């Protein structure tokens, strides 16, 4: 991993922000596979015209494979799930999508649950009301964050806790995109708030061992460095 292209630029480059859980998900996939990549920060307010041309949904992140094209839309893939699937196909070992057809489907299902249900609740309900408010010069909306945690998160966390059962990982008891996606989205909450998981022991255990993995901890440290400058102390959700 490097912070930008140089004399030893890799084929893969991820455009985005370390604060994005979806960018961190893609970075984690590269790191777990030993696939070298460059990371280029992209500001989205306003979004550069060159980035709009490769991001039809106007979102970060976007992946480029320089072995296909070093500029323009060619060689680019938008959407983090599509990006991760491409990385897995380009670097097939170790697989992060299950060893069986059923495992593959379940991994994709839980990844989608994390990227939509979990990410929506954590991003719109907790991260943005706190961090975006501070960036805009306002007081953090702690009440909104606590309301979200109290009312929206219990069924989400209970579902994920139940999916784990006694296993260390969500799929076939081995690391998969499901584990990476869930952890990346949960850490979006952890960027701004202490996250009590005592009522969800399986998920708490999973979160602890996943956040210790270098593929998760490295990208998160960069995001945390950015957030801590604006929010020195995490808020309390309870």
TrEMBL record:
**Which Gene Ontology molecular-function terms are recorded?**
transferase activity
Segment forming the signal sequence = none
- Gene3D superfamilies, A to Z: 1.20.1050.10, Glutaredoxin
Which Pfam family is an annotated match for this chain, by its short name? GST_C_3
| Alphabetized InterPro entries for the sequence | Glutathione-S-Trfase_C-like, Glutathione-S-Trfase_C_sf, Glutathione_S-Trfase, Glutathione_S-Trfase_N, GST_C, Thioredoxin-like_sf
SUPFAM superfamilies hit by this protein? GST C-terminal domain-like, Thioredoxin-like
- Listed CDD domains: GST_C_family (cd00299)
Q: Which UniProt keywords apply?
A: Transferase
Annotated GST C-terminal domain residues: 100-233
Query: Ranges for the GST N-terminal domain?
Result: 10-95
Q: Which PANTHER family match?
A: GLUTATHIONE S-TRANSFERASE GSTA, GLUTATHIONE S-TRANSFERASE-RELATED
Record-given protein name: Glutathione S-transferase
Organism name: Erythrobacter longus
């Amino acid at each position: 991993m490097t912070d930008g292209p140089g004399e030893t630029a890799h084929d893969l480059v991820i455009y985005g922000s370390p604060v994005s859980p979806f960018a961190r998900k893609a970075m984690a996939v590269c790191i777990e596979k030993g696939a070298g990549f460059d990371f280029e920060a992209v500001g989205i307010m306003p979004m550069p015209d060159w980035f709009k041309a490769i991001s039809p949904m106007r979102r970060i992140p976007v992946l480029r494979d320089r072995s296909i094209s070093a500029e323009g839309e060619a060689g680019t893939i938008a959407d983090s799930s599509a990006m991760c699937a491409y990385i897995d196909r380009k670097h097939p070992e170790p697989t992060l999508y299950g060893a069986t057809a059923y495992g593959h489907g379940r991994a994709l299902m839980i990844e989608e649950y994390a990227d939509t249900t979990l990410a929506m609740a954590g991003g719109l309900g907790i991260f943005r009301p706190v961090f975006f408010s501070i960036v805009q010069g306002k007081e953090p909306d702690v009440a909104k964050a606590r309301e979200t945690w109290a009312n929206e998160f219990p069924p989400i966390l209970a579902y994920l806790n139940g999916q784990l059962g006694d296993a260390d990982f969500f799929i076939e008891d081995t690391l998969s995109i499901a584990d990476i996606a869930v952890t990346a989205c949960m850490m979006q909450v952890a960027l701004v708030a202490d996250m009590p998981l005592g009522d969800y022991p399986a998920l708490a255990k999973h979160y602890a061992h996943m956040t210790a993995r270098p593929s998760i901890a490295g990208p998160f440290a960069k995001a945390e460095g950015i957030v801590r400058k604006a929010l020195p102390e995490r808020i309390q959700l309870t």
